UniProtKB/TrEMBL annotation:
The keyword Oxidoreductase does not apply. The lineage of its organism: Bacteria, Bacillati, Bacillota, Bacilli, Bacillales. It comes from Paenibacillus sonchi. InterPro entries: ABC2_TM. PANTHER family: INTEGRAL MEMBRANE PROTEIN-RELATED, MEMBRANE PROTEIN. Residues 64-186 form the ABC-2 type transporter transmembrane domain. The chain crosses the membrane at residues 20-38, 63-83, 104-122, 142-169, 176-197, 227-247. This is ABC transporter permease. It is found in: Membrane. Keywords: Membrane, Transmembrane, Transmembrane helix. It is a multi-pass membrane protein.
Amino acid sequence: MYNLIRSELFKLRKDRSFRVLLLVTAVLSLAYPLLYYFDNKSSGDPQFTGAEFLIKFMASNGYVIKFSVAALAGFFIASEYATGVMKTIASSGNDRGRLFTAKLIGFSVGAMAVSIVFPIVSTTEVSLLSGFGHLPEGVDAFFIPRALGLTLLYTAGYAAIGALFTAVFTESGKTIGFSMIFFLMIDMILGDLGKYIPFFTTVYDYSIFKLMGDISKPSIGSGDLPALLLVPLLTIVAAGLLGILVFRRKEIK
């Protein structure tokens, strides 16, 4: 298992799509704060400090996570079906459950690396331009490590769902297209279903799709923290087990 994970991490480091995704996210993370910097400078408005920018725009990172998971799932995993690599791996004699788990770990590491580019790069740039400042009154002193830690955890939850989609569709285009539509629409779908069937409101309230919005909250009550931690962990386990089940039964051509 250790060698399988090492192999996936090696492929991740060499994967061109992963490098491009990191580069594009970094460039956008540098460009985004500059728009506000020059706009505020021309209008005479006060500049954001690094702390203020992180708190205000941390929620925007959710879109980076969704798009990066969808793109990486298609290019890093699903593309191996088309190239024949997946068939070679599946016929290597290793248990398919272990193969899928190793791929999920490698894929999750890549998605998590991309997920923290925006908060780190943009906050660093704004801090260099205007200073880091200090956290506003009422903001939890552990906001930054908590927000970054939850970002990594929730990205792993999204990655587990994305890996499940690769086992279902096995094609890059279908995986990327369906994943993007699913991640962008699931909030609205569960919200609308909840208006007619209350059960779906409960499902949505305790899903990573809604709780990811709480990552950027200035403070989180101790009563809310267990759900914030347990929901992504259970999502990883459930989606991972479903992915293994599908991958084991899949005919790989």
